[in-house]
Amino acid sequence: MSFQTIRNASFASGRLLLPGGAALLATTLIASSVLGWTQYGGAQDDEATPPYLAEAAEPDAAPDTATAQYPPEDADEPAPPEGPAGLDDPVALYDHLRQLRQEEHDYATARALAEQYLTTHPDRAWSRHLVEFEYAMTWYDDDPATAAPLLAAVAAGHRALDPAIEPFLLDDALAYAADSYRRSGDPERAIRTYDTFLETYPASDHRPSALLGLATLHAEQGEQDPALLRLDQLIREFPESDYAPQAQVQIGQIHLASGDYAGAINTFERVPQRWPDSPQVPAALRHANRAMAQLDDAEWVASRSAESAGRHVEVIEATLRRLLTDYPASPSTPAALLDTIEYYQQAYWWMLGDNDAVRRRIITLAEQVRTLYPDTDESWRARLELADALVGPDPARAGALLDEAIQSALRDNKPDRYVAALFHKGNFCVGTGQPAAARAAFEDVLRSTDSSRVAANTKLCLAHNYAREGNLTAAIKLFDELDSADQPEDIRGVAVLGKAHELYAAREREAALAVLDDFLRRFPDSRSAPDALHTRALWSRPQVLIVPDRDPRSAR
After folding, report:
1. What are the Cα distances from residue 1, in Å, to 9, 89, 98?
2. Coil, helix or strand at residue 185
3. Are residues 318 and 288 in contact, defined by beta-carbon separation less than 8 angstroms?
4. Helix locations, 128-222, DSSP H
5. Taking the domains of the chain in order of start, what are their residue ranges?
6. What share of the chain is helix, strand, coil (3-state, %, to 5)?
7. CA 38, 41, 45, 46 torsion: positive or negative?
8. Are the beta carbons of 56 and 153 closer than 8 angstroms?
């Protein structure tokens, strides 16, 4: 029986290759890793190798071609020793193991049968990789650290025995080894292994996903240039692949992360133009809107002119309508609705100053998410945003929404949701003049969260709340605690500004000006620096001018 015949028969009921968008590695392999093997020859020193894979795992051992007998394509093998009834044929056993693993999820039985075969058939080097592959895959879902070297041994050992042998399952093994290395947290080995994979199997069906995975790993390590190189290579070599538009989206995300908003927009817009039927189109439209919103913000910060405020809002709204009309079932559409709420909250609201109109738009968008996408994470988040927008016009409904959110998080055992709802509840209490209740909510957040970022933002809110309670000493102490080297720069800057504002509100103008000067000296490139300069000019006038507090809910 030829290897091509085995391959065709074994994949007749479901290929293990990874078609774009549908198979196991279609998404997760984007950031996957492959093999930490030198060349394609063996296990790392720190990896334990099962006895029945020891021969395949010796990297420097030359294949013994005199004793490695590979039968002619159609030759029958001698009858093997007795094994599980009807499963002595490695191809039949392979199919049975795959059924146990994929359909019945009976990993223990599959593992036991594979171990029995591998122990009782030590002389079948030419076909052992079928069973070895399935044995390794029994660890794949739950223990990727164990699966990775086993899958690597399937490819490395049998390729070393005879480099001329058709690589049935060997490139598949490397692909799954890649994802296993990624999930076990070894990006350096993953990157080395992807390079080896691409060199060893230039014609593999996995090559597009490997290029995408390697590019993503480079991006995650902050290596943007090699990431862009591999993404461009993927689009150039496989323009019709399902992975090509995905690569285009990733190129746009790299531009977006680097602050090249115009470049990101152009890159995202090419996806619907070049691949109009791709499932990546909704994601590209959503990310184009995100880039447009950040461009709006950057242009306003640079000019501080009314003419630059909200220049792209009509384009953002038009793109959102397209998503709702053409792609209502895409996960990108409710996410884009929430993005638009955030745009209005963090940019348009304070850019244009029409708070009532913006608040009405936020309410409409939040209600839209809850109506169109009930029982989703986006709907739950929209409830919080709706509550925030209703604090002024309908505080009773806002409070009821937040209480519902807290109770549902407790009922569903969702600690992250509970923390988020409590944080919003604290700000609700601040906005409705309940400083004691706000303090209790913020302190509960601090007891409940493991996130340093959430804790820092909560402490900022708590410090402002202390000042509202008349406890300026506690407020200043908390601001000073946040102005420390272990905090991100944006948190430190907001803490210094908060301290200045609370000192000025307490009629301590000279102390406030000194803190403001300290901010301008230490954070001259902050997006808040122009506002701080304007504030300093106001505070320096002889008359007392109490400026409104800036929204303390997030560090910008």
Report:
1. 11, 11, 20
2. coil
3. no
4. 128-137, 144-161, 170-183, 187-200, 207-220
5. 1-60+81-221, 354-450, 453-556
6. 65, 0, 35
7. positive
8. yes
354-450 CATH pick, 3.30.70.2190, 1.10.10.10, 1.25.40.10, 1.20.1050.10: 1.25.40.10
* DSSP-derived secondary structure for 328-380: TTSTHHHHHHHHHHHHIIIIIHHHH--HHHHHHHHHHHHHHHHHHSTTSHHHH
Which pairs count as long-range contacts for 188-192, CB under 8 Å and 24+ apart, including other chains? 189/33, 189/35, 189/36, 190/32, 190/33, 190/34, 190/36, 190/217, 191/33, 191/217, 191/218, 191/221, 192/35, 192/36
Q: Which two tokens stand for residue 127?
A: 């076909």
Q: Does the domain formed by 1-60+81-221 have CATH 1.25.40.10?
A: yes
Cα torsion 386, 391, 392, 396 to 10°: value is: 110
Q: pTM for the complete prediction?
A: 0.74
Sign of dihedral through CA atoms 499, 502, 503, 509?
Answer: positive
Q: Which of 555, 358, 353, 342 is nearest to 464 (CA)?
A: 555
Query: Which residue do the tokens 């029982």 mark?
Result: 375
Q: How far apart are CA 118 and CA 111, in angstroms?
A: 11
Q: Which of 283, 371, 286, 552 is nearest to 386 (CA)?
A: 371
State how far the Cα of 277 lies from the Cα of 270, in Å rounded to an integer.
Answer: 12
Residues 60, 65, 69: CA angle, nearest 5 degrees: 130
The CATH topology of domain 453-556 is 1.25.40
- Enter the tokens of residue 409: 């998080």
Provide the residue-wise pLDDT of the chain in tens; the chain has 556 residues. Answer: 332 333 333 333 333 332 233 332 333 322 333 223 222 233 333 333 333 333 333 333 333 333 332 233 333 433 433 444 446 777 888 889 999 999 999 999 999 999 988 888 776 555 677 888 899 999 999 999 999 999 988 888 765 555 555 556 788 888 888 888 988 899 988 898 889 889 988 888 989 999 999 999 999 999 999 999 999 999 999 999 999 999 999 999 999 999 999 999 999 999 999 999 999 999 999 999 999 999 988 887 777 666 666 788 999 999 999 999 999 999 999 999 999 999 998 765 455 556 788 889 999 999 999 999 998 999 999 999 999 999 989 999 999 999 999 999 999 999 999 999 999 999 999 999 999 999 999 999 999 999 999 999 999 999 999 999 999 999 999 999 999 999 999 999 999 999 999 999 999 999 999 999 999 999 998 888 888 998 999 998 875 555 554 444 444 3
